[in-house]
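Record type: ASSEMBLY
Status: queued
Input:
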Amino acid sequence: MKEKKNAIELEDVCIHYSIMNHVSIRKTFLHKKKRKEVFEAVKHVTFSVGEGDILGIIGKNGSGKSTLLKSIAGVFSPNAGRIDLKGHSVSLMSLGVGFKDTLSGRENIVLSGMLLGFSEKEIEERAQDIIDFAEIGEFIDRPVRTYSSGMYSKLAFSITAMLETDIMLVDEVLSVGDEQFRKKSLNKMKELINDRKRTVIIVSHSISTLKELCDQVLWLHDGQVRRIGKTDEVLGEYAAYMAPADRKQDGRRV
Amino acid sequence: MFFTSIAMFFIAPFVAWKIHSRTRRTDIEGKKGIKVLAAYFFILNAATFAVSSYRGVDMRGWNPFTTTVSFRIKYMVCSTVIGVCLARAVCGFLNRGITVAEIRKYAARFFGDMKKYFPYAVRAAKADLKAEVTNSFLDWMWWLIEPFCMMLIYTVMFGVVFDAAEEYFPIFIFIGITMWSFFTRGITGSVEMVRANRGIVTRIYLPKYILLFSKLMVNGFKMLVSFAVIAVMLVVFRVRVTGSVLAMAPILAVLFLITFGIGSILMHYGVYVNDLSYITGILLTMMMYLTGTFYAVAKRIPEPFGAVLEKCNPIAFLIAEMRNVVLYGQSLDWKLLFVWCVLSVLLVGIGVFMIYRNENSYVKVI
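Status: finished
Output:
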């Protein structure tokens, strides 16, 4: 049997934020001690994802999912440990790829694409497809700061969906837009995922979405890997863990 | 006597080394300590030589054994002062020691990243210029009207009211304003640049100095538009233009480099220090008056400060040279321009180094 190659490897990754309050000149002059608190967002995480696999990450808020994803995307490096992407191109699909508000949607498509590593020519070829998918009409030529939040997310989604990178990281973005757009984006996701050469990591709170799309699920709890394994097993344990909280909040439910 | 002529070279490096090892012991173990000592030795003695030659000591035929006692004492004091300042600066600003390997790694990365992100910077600059044009009333004409109006104001105030006119005063002022506003806009923008672009910086990786580079290209384009106006004014005022005008290109290149260098250092500190924009504002205002934007520094400021200022303030130097080359047909002071070119490259190196080292933490702070 051919040994499956890994697309992403994480080894003992630790990421922490030092909650250092901004330095002001006055405080430095008065030699006030800088309290440097360290918040450990991700602690000693190790896992790997094979080529073409689809991994889901689930966990309650604040468990470090977005931080981990950003680190894999290269927005910042981990403080310790190693993340190896084996030379694949990676894109992070989150709410907004980072637009320059004063520029039009069309210009932002090109600029975002260039930051994701595509050449101007490649982007211009796909520009019309991106615009058609986003369905924001004539607003495509108006500055992004005039967009509604729905338009913003639709444009962001279609840019990252159309410019296909080897690894896609999806951060809770499948729940934006109206019903029609949501259906369209879910179908597009499925189409992108079914390309067996593309590796995908999906972060979501929705157990049903993960059950539908993923092969494996990683349960991240307080920055540590609680469980990793087949979708049904992990999601079952996660649901069981979260259930008592439901009952506590609404005491009357049996 | 013999002893002091040898000792005067070694006292300052030793003092600096001692300070360094007391503040940061880990830097000075074993072989590393010797390298640090050697580095201090060379730097401090070179610096003291530079100072003494500047103050008029004839360096040719200089023999340590034939110098007077007072010279030796002055040498030792001067080098020790420089040494103490350097040691404290190095220990204060660097949390971790620098290794040559790190410098080499960042240098290689710099050239790779510049090549990779240059098309992005160009495209972003073009898009910014287009956005400015589409959003405003008189669109691109403001790039001409604004400096022109500033020039009129200064010409009237200083030429007529204060009666401090120079030859071809309007063009004289225009050159000063154009180059100064390139510098000032670059510096002011760089302090808050990372925070202003937090939308992009927190979602995707790009080397942060590319943002500054893109902004400088926008400002550079506007400066070139102003120079086109200057060219027209040269014709109108019938200024005799010589071949030395070609020296415009290297002067502008050094101006760009120095703005990029200082801007990238400020961009790094601007992420952590809130009040930096106030400080830069005050310093820039002060610098504007000391840079001879609307007067000739060498003439107005009393000796010896005038000549010193023109040499030590890089922007003043560049503006004065530009005027010499364009208006008065004089040839360029290549030696000093080369010195400033090297210093600008050094500043760029420091800025890029600090950004590469720390950019991972920016996203977590803003």
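Annotation: The helical segments of chain A are 25-29, 65-73, 105-115, 120-134, 149-162, 179-194, 207-213, 231-249.
Annotation: Residues 99-159 of chain A form one domain.
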